[in-house]
Amino acid sequence: MAKLILSMDGLVLKEIQLRKERMSIGRKAHNDIQIDNMAISGEHAAVVTILNDSFLEDLNSTNGTLVNGQSVRKHFLKDGDVIELGKYKMKYLAEAVSPVEEAEAERSAPFRFESVSGIATSGVTASAATSLTGAETANLPTATIRLLSGSNVGHQLQLTKTLTSLGRPGQVAVIARRPQGYFLSHVEGTVFPLLNGQPIDSSARRLEDRDLIEIAGVKMEFILKT
What we know:
By secondary structure, the chain is mainly beta. The chain folds into 2 domains: 3-93, Tumour Suppressor Smad4; 142-225, Tumour Suppressor Smad4. The chain contains 2 helices and 22 strands. Residues 115-135 have low confidence and may be disordered. Residues 23-72 form the FHA domain. This is FHA domain-containing protein FhaA. InterPro entries: Cell_Proc_Reg/RNA_Proc, FHA_dom, SMAD_FHA_dom_sf.
């Protein structure tokens, strides 16, 4: 299990296991990781873990978030990365896995598609994305994803949550449910998803009925029910 080592001025303050899918960081008491310092925003950042991968996102904080000295909005965390929030530092330590084991795990990992919360896509922050529910999306038609290949061919998932993750370790995308419709975005990996046979770019792509999506070698169909 991955963990964060919180320190200040070289003094280790706490070791935090990333046990939850989403770990919020901020000054307010409701955060999973509370840092009671005025340089830290009330809701400063979040770490989202999908499968064996973790992503850091700045939640529009006042003073920003650095990783290895560089300002970031969203960052795929790698073993040894150092997150800086004001005078505080958090070192990300991934679970130790040999390169051979990691490669084998990626090849054998099942394709997953599941509802999650807390990942931003195309400039929508985690907190903003999570709030797009209720009245704002009440008029959206129901949509489903149907797998066309792979071991779970024929399986369907109704897209009722704000975000649904798709893929395997090393190639992950999300479908965001917004007031304007359903949007596909690339999250992680060097290979981008295919939409109707063409790779998407880093921006979100609005999905239309019967669009064909391919992620991590698995083909699926987006079905919009009117």
